[in-house]
Amino acid sequence: MSSVSIDKKVPSFTAQATSELTVSSEELAGKNVVIYFYPKDSTPGCTTEGQNFRDSISEFEAANTVIFGVSRDSLRAHENFKAKQSFPFELISDPEEELCKLFDVIKLKKNYGREYMGIERSTFLIDAEGILRKEWRGVKVKGHVEEVLDAAQTL
Asked: With pLDDT > 70 as the criterion, what percentage of the chain qualifies?
């Protein structure tokens, strides 16, 4: 499976999400899509990022844009996280790292001197034709959602 690149069609994918949904790239045609990858449910940065997307949902909807959060957490953990934070969008569970590999977000990370492979906080904006228009890698949470929203509004 090749990974995504700017101004190219995103390869087909299917993934399991909260609300017992199966998300497929084909079903998303006609809408702009934000897919944001984050390391772990219920951690400070990931919670803040999700809350920022949540708080801007009406502006994203006005820009014909749907949002999906992705991590390797289980659907059960996602359901709890989504409910606790009142997220109005679905979270995709990717324990096999299929989407993570497609979007090339698994990177060598360091935490307290320990090295491990983990999700690099990243966001991707796909247009209504399924073409990747913008990507943000190594995201810092502060101000990020506003940047993504600006880009979505220009599509």
From this structure: 99
Q: How far apart are CA 52 and CA 67, in angstroms?
A: 12
Q: 100 catalytic, yes or no?
A: no
Average confidence (pLDDT) over 41-55:
97
DSSP class of 19: T
- Tell me the mean pLDDT in the region 130-138: 97
Instruction: Please identify which of the residues 28, 33, 34, 46 carries the catalytic annotation.
Output: 46
DSSP string, 97-144: -HHHHHTT-EEEEEETTEEEEEEPPEEEEE-TTSBEEEEEES--STTH
Within 8 A by CB and 6+ apart from 20, the residues are: none
The whole-model pTM stands at 0.96
Q: Which long-range contacts (CB under 8 A, 24 or more apart) does 95-100 make?
A: 97/72, 98/1, 98/13, 98/15, 99/13, 99/15, 99/35, 99/37, 99/70, 100/37, 100/70, 100/72
**1 has a pLDDT exceeding 60:** no
In 3-state terms, what secondary structure has residue 37? strand
Instruction: Give Rg (Cα) of the chain.
Output: 14
